[in-house]
Amino acid sequence: MEVMQIDTEFVTLGQLLKMTNAISSGGMAKWFLEEHAVYVNGEEERRRGKKLYDGDVVNIPNAGRFKISSSVNGQSDVH
User: Fold this and answer.
1) Taking the CB of residue 38, how many other CB atoms lie within 10 A of it?
2) Beta strand extents in 1-79 (DSSP E only)
3) Which tens digits make up the pLDDT trace of 19-71?
4) C-beta of residue 38 within 8 angstroms of C-beta of residue 78
5) pTM above 0.90, yes or no
6) Backbone phi, then psi, for 37, in 5-degree steps?
7) How far apart are CA 24 and CA 19, in angstroms?
8) In whole angstroms, what is the distance from residue 31 CA to residue 49 CA?
9) Bridge partners, residue 58, by sequence
10) Which residues contact 73 (CB under 8 A, 6 or more apart)?
11) Would you give the distance in Å from CA 20 to the centre of its chain?
């Protein structure tokens, strides 16, 4: 599982898809989620605007599993 470090409180699923190179542009997020089963914390998710927070685990087909790690205000919240 790869750790995705973010410096904000949350990141959207669409942004994560782009960060992981599962898609090449933000505009592809809706299509990608219609065509592929993406899981957030073990539950299928199809909303590109779904907010992902520190500790969330996302499974993206053909890209891998990713754990969100937030370092808001320079402090890591890694558990």
Assistant:
1) 22
2) 2-6, 10-12, 38-40, 43-45, 51-53, 57-60, 64-70
3) 998 998 888 999 999 999 999 999 999 999 999 999 999 999 888 999 999 87
4) no
5) no
6) -85, 115
7) 9
8) 13
9) 40, 66
10) none
11) 8
